[in-house]
Design goal:
Order of helices and strands: HEHEHHEHHEHHEH
Number of strands: 5
Strand order of the largest sheet: 2-3-1-4-5
Strand content: 5-15%
Bound molecules: thymidine-5'-phosphate
Radius of gyration: 17 Å
Length: 214
């Protein structure tokens, strides 16, 4: 029967925000929540997610690559995404697996569009090319102040990567960009107050996920 061979697509959910916003913790917690509900999931991240895309990640983020041009940076993020989407994300979604991704297209609009100053129409066109039209059905943007983000980043034990070395001014543009993206698509993109406690953020995300999976 045709209907029996048709598999339901998995949901595609992304977590976004400026560095230090706490999204990666919530990706892990949301994954546990869905696993407990026996929902098949794939947890992944951008840039990266496949061996080739992880190598591209290393090139993009290496603090040794200070001389990387903004155009090169934009294209590398999208090269990583093209590989990730085709090799890993689309096949999972087509099998009915829900994909939780730590960053995706909104990061490119916020960082390279609003932050670096590329036209959003250019970013959009290149992004469409790299994803072949794949778009998240839910995006959580974690909103935290620049001061809070910088104080959290200072406490991190790892050496800051090339992007984390950026100025407060750049991060301010990226943050404003994220909020603008959310206001343009309020039904798909939800703003989460990233300065609330981990538990309270988790509860809000679980409430929303419960509605999505009802
Ligand atoms: P992560 O540290 O959250 O894994 O993300 C890596 C860095 O890459 C982070 O500073 C955000 C940045 N980024 C972009 O500038 N553009 C993008 O398209 C993506 C996916 C990430």
């Amino acid at each position: 029967m045709l209907w029996q061979s048709m598999k339901k697509q998995g949901l595609f959910i992304t977590f976004e925000g400026i560095d230090g916003c706490g999204k990666s913790t919530q990706v892990r917690k949301a994954a546990c929540f869905l696993e407990e509900k026996k929902i098949p999931i794939l947890v992944t991240r951008e840039p990266g997610g496949t061996p080739i895309a992880e190598k591209i990640r290393d090139i993009i983020l290496s603090p040794d690559h200070d001389s990387m041009t903004n155009r090169c940076e934009l294209l590398l993020y999208l090269a990583s995404r093209a590989q990730h989407v085709q090799e890993k994300m689309r096949p999972a979604l087509e099998k009915g697996v829900t994909v939780l991704c730590d960053r995706f297209q909104e990061a490119t609009f916020a960082y390279q569009g609003f932050g670096r100053g590329f036209l959003l129409s250019t970013v959009n066109q290149l992004n469409q090319f790299s994803t072949n039209g794949l778009k998240p059905s839910r995006t959580y943007i974690f909103d935290i102040s620049i001061e809070c983000a910088f104080s959290r980043m200072k406490k991190m034990v790892k050496v800051p990567d090339r992007i984390e070395k950026s100025s407060k001014e750049l991060y301010q543009k990226i943050l404003e960009g994220y909020l603008k993206l959310a206001s343009n698509e309020p039904s798909r993109i939800k703003i989460i107050d990233g300065e609330e406690s981990i538990g309270s953020i988790y509860n809000k995300i679980c409430d929303d996920l419960s509605v999505l999976f009802a």
